[in-house]
Amino acid sequence: MRARLFSSPLNTMLTVLIAWLLLMFVPAIVEWLFIRANFDATTAQECRASGGACWAFIREKHRLILFGLYPYDEQWRPLLATVLLVGVIICSCIRRFWKPYLGLIWLVVLTAVAVLMWGGVFGMRYVENDKWGGLPLTLILSTFGIAFAFPFGLLLALGRRSNMPAIKAISIIYIELIRGVPLISLLFMSSVMLPLFLPEGFSIDKLLRAQIALIMFAAAYIAETVRGGLQAIPKGQYEGADSLGLSYWQQMRKIILPQALRVVIPPLVGIFISLFKDTSLVVIIGIFDLTQAAKTAVADAAWRGFSTEAYLFIAFIYFIFCFSISRYSQSLERHLETGHQR
Question: What is the CA radius of gyration of the chain?
Fold first, then answer.
């Protein structure tokens, strides 16, 4: 402790300052969050009188925050869809499920999610996707975004390193153009400008347009990350693959890409986490995601003034998912023995 905290006058001063800040703020935060918090109030006035956090507001509005404008009596459907999505993601993280039938499991689960969310069959009422919202919509956007952006990004990375000038130029232009603009611009373009270029009488759903923008954005960053991994592979690996008489795609699939992806696991996971959080930006084009659902709950006149609790609640949801992804990536690195752990 002396070497780490009190090794110099500056370190001693910083240690004392940080300890003083913790003593000042941590007890007050704990008191507000838990000790003086109200969990069972029936009105906003009762919550305000307690002087602490109003978790009764979350209890009152949790279904609106989690499921958005989805019909109240049908909210078991998005709940089941969320459980199925989380379940198949967890299965995909377990090595014993890394079999060819995992693709079939994904197909069945995604079909079930579509049936549950849209309905219109098996006696379920049809629900248009402009009524979707909250956590299920966030998971759908991020899951499909990662699923489609990853292979697209791989192709772009290979295209940028291609010896064919046309393919290389197209890949470079796409990557640099997409990485040079913020995601908000792509969302606005997909929501406002894209319909202007479509033939008359033909339209693309707003949710699908947002999904395409997310995929395009994430694919460009994945491509540059994978390209860095490809550059880290020694030239001898390519020459050894050539000496075995393997075709280009056999080299990539069996020798080069497995090593390159193993090297870039940490930045790839960072991109996946960023994509999951960036789904909150779809609120600017009117899609009812988790953030917009929280804003709507706060706008209720009977419970106005508890935005802190609402945003802490959705922040906790984001943290659980992002922290789980991060911890899994660390365990995967240890299992694959990438040699990059400290």
Answer: 24
Q: pLDDT for 12-65, tens place per residue? A: 999 999 999 999 999 999 999 999 999 999 889 999 898 899 999 999 999 999
Segment (H or E) for 303: none
Q: What is the pLDDT of residues 249-267, one digit of tens each?
A: 999 999 999 999 999 988 9
Is the distance from CB of 133 to CB of 288 less than 8 angstroms? yes
Q: Model confidence over 201-254: pLDDT tens digits?
A: 777 888 998 999 999 999 999 999 999 999 999 999 989 988 989 998 999 999
On average, the pLDDT of the chain sits at 91
* CA 300 from centroid of its chain's CA atoms: 28
Smallest Cα–Cα separation from 176: which of 227, 229, 141? 227
Q: Is 26 exposed, middle or buried (0-12, 13-18, 19+ CB in 10 A)?
A: exposed
CA distances from 311 to 87, 219, 303, 307 (A): 26, 29, 14, 6
Q: Quick one: pLDDT at residue 304?
A: 86
Tokens of 152: 């697209």
For residue 315, give Cα distances in angstroms to 52, 280, 309, 310, 319.
19, 11, 10, 9, 6
- Dihedral angle, C-alpha 150, 152, 155, 159, nearest 10 °: -120
Q: Beta-carbon neighbour count of residue 190 at 10 Å?
A: 22
In one letter, which amino acid is 333? E
CA torsion angle 263 267 268 273 (round to 10):
150
CA-CA distance, 176 to 136, in Å (whole number)?
A: 32
Q: What is the DSSP string of 106-124?
A: HHHHHHHHHHHHH--STTP
Of 204, 99, 226, whose CA–CA distance to 152 is shortest? 226
The pTM of the full predicted model, rounded to 2 decimals, is: 0.88
Q: What is the DSSP string of 70-102?
A: S-GGGTHHHHHHHHHHHHHHHHHHSGGG-STHH
